[in-house]
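Internal tracking record. Fields below are filled automatically when a chain is submitted to the structure queue. Please do not edit lines marked as system-generated. If the sequence contains nonstandard residues, flag them in the REMARKS field before resubmitting.
Queue: standard
Priority: normal
Entity type: single polypeptide chain
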Amino acid sequence: MKNILLSSAVAVLLFTGCTEEKKEETTASVEVKQEVQAPVEVKTEEVKAEPTTKEVVVKAADEVKNTVTKAAEDISKSVSTAASKVAEDTPKVVEDTVTKTKEVVNDTVEKTKEVVNNVSKEAAAMVDSMTKEKEEAKPAVNGQALFASCAACHGQNGEKAALGKSQIIKGWDKQQVLDALNGYKNGTYGGAMKGVMTGQVATKTDAEIDALATYISNL
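SYSTEM-GENERATED OUTPUT FOLLOWS
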């Protein structure tokens, strides 16, 4: 009887152990199955797609376009502002330019006049100097040689009355002789010998008359 009970107890224990083992296996199987059947959670990280070359080019082109457009607008505004400023300042600039031009012209005219006057003075002085040099370069007029043609009527020393009609010229001063000779030449002087003397002095120069008067005044 005891053996039967002991055998039954062992059987029960074995059965229980097997049952527990199967239960554990079943539980483990269920858990594995559940794990297999459970949806796998895939953690996906957001991956930023790299832009394509076309997108990069398009973006760069848009940026360039925007930059150029902004620059063009800025330039247009600057030009408009500058043009307005020029338009405002132009009348004043023109007026200032005209005023300065007038001042320059007037100053130039005055300086030109001054230069012309100086040149005229220098030219006149040069002409006088050249004339003087020319006169000085001329051989001196010989009064004695000129009187040779007069001595036939007036005497070698002017002591005779020409043809017995003229005044004796010896002792006359130079001015008296000059007045008589120039008077004969221009027809404002003379008496009985006027016709003869006019022909004698008509061709004589002022220098010759002066030299002749000097010589006669010293007889």
